[in-house]
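seq as requested:
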Amino acid sequence: MYGISLMDRKNVSNAAIAGMRTDLSLLEGYRYSLITLCFFITYVVFQSPMTVICRKVGPRIFLPGICFLWGALVIGLGFAKNWTTVVGLRLVLGILEAGYFPGCVYLLSTWYTRFEVARRYSVFYLIGSLASALSGILAYGLMQMEGVQGVRGWRWIFIMEGVITCAIAIFAYAFIVRFPDQERDKPSFRFLQPHECQYIIDRLEEDRRDVVAEKFTLKRFLKPAGDFEIWVFAFMFFCLTTVTYAFAFFLPIILRDNLGFSLAASQCLIAPPDRYRMRAPIILLNCIILIVGLPIMGFHSNNAVRYFGVFIAVAGANANVPAIMAYQANNIRGQWKRAFCSATLTGFGGIGGISGSLVFRSQDRPDYMPGMVACIVCAVAIMICATLLTLYFRATNKKADRGEKIIGEDPDFRYTL
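struct tokens:
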């Protein structure tokens, strides 16, 4: 489903190549840019309310439900007669997709202990990215339907991908589970027996004591906004997604041809955190790998060496996505605080998508020096934030050990460094 969500938000670029720009007069002024970026406006704004709805309704209904609805919207894009209709549909698409990624991040964090989530986030993110990478091949195949039933090829891209999305949403309803406390009281299907759910809940209670959500109030949900570390996590994710989106926009052909190696390298880079119960050191290592790869990718005279730089840079950047997600999840206690943080993190990630589209400008060809410098600055900013957070967490843990401070309203809770 994550791969489908990425495909459905980016398929407008495939449709544009297939004739959409000409048919809907998107070449005039900033129409195409507006269509591309309008998605992120509602995607960022609706992160928090959609996450609250996910907690209240339950992920088994909420996640497949919004997936089915945005699939129907994508089908509607295939019948759009003008560019303003496309803008309107993509604004609504942003609202619906705003609930998916933070909802999944939140759901995963409620089922696993703090030192189990990094690997799960990694698998979730990398498999989704790999599935999304195949969207170009799928779009090319659908373009060959040009003229079938008198319908243009770019319209078939939207129609068929929307149908696929709706089908996956129906299929997903049979397998997505509720939150652990909901599964114990009312199992979705024969996934776990009640005593197995209770075992999982006991493990989570021992780990952080926040399995059962408190009654929702707006004050309780917004209270974490006063915690500075939440905004530091969000800023780190903004810097990271600025780089990853910039790569996606600047290197689509290279990444599509070589994504398998890059994802495999990313998987290897994310494996140590759960094993050694570390977060910040791994984030720093990934940033160093990114910084090493960027100059090689941008400035070396040999194309083969530059491609190698792409592998290094992409591996370092992509490995940090689940790493930062896990770093945030490990150091947040409380269901509603966790929901707020997931929404804030992914909301800033959406803002990073907007800034990432502006990093590599055509006027900076051929070496794209300003874009390379911007990516390096983002990596350095992540390193500074991770270092300062680690120092703060370490000092706070020492105070908690001496009995001078209680972290997250739990005397036994300690920050993960």
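Confidence is low (pLDDT under 50) at residues 252-261.
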